[in-house]
Amino acid sequence: MSPTSRKWLRVFFAGPGAVIIAMVVMAGMALWLPRGAAQIDNLVLPLVLVPLIWAALFFHACLDRRLGRVAIVAIGLLLIHGGLVAHKFMNRPPAAGEQAK
């Protein structure tokens, strides 16, 4: 891979990639975090942690010498949390008006 394409791939992982992955991680965190006493901790904590998640992904993409490791971490987080969100939407009960076939 040429140095120019490596640079643009790193820019993608540090820029829009970090934002998209942070949002997907936020959505997935609401599913695996335990509920607190007020029953809203699993919703509030991911919202508060999004800037920290974004910053961690951004600095990891900028500072890690190995681009492959950056890609593995970013794509791994995206697949795991995206899978959690997809699984949650696939396992919802049918609406009251729908009949099971």
Average pLDDT rating: 90
- Rg, Å, rounded: 17 Å
| Total beta-strand segments | 0
- Helix- and strand-based class? mainly alpha
Coarse morphology? elongated
* Distance separating the two termini: 51 Å
Task: Enumerate the spans where pLDDT stays under 50 for 5 or more consecutive residues.
Answer: none
Number of helices: 4
Bin the helical content: over 70%
* Domains (count): 1
Approximate strand percentage: under 5%
Keywords: Membrane, Transmembrane, Transmembrane helix
Transmembrane segments: 12-32, 44-63, 70-90
Describe this structure in words.
The chain is mainly alpha-helical and 101 residues long. It has one domain (3-89). The protein contains 4 helices and no strands. The chain has helices at residues 3-14, 16-32, 41-63, 67-90. The mean pLDDT is 90. Keywords: Membrane, Transmembrane, Transmembrane helix. The chain crosses the membrane at residues 12-32, 44-63, 70-90.
For this entry, give a set of tags.
101 residues; 75% helix; membrane; mainly alpha; transmembrane; transmembrane helix
Topology:
Blueprint: H1 3-14, H2 16-32, H3 41-63, H4 67-90
Helix pairs in contact: 1-2, 1-3, 1-4, 2-3, 2-4
Question: Short description, anyone?
Answer:
75% of the residues lie in helices and 0% in strands. The chain is mainly α.
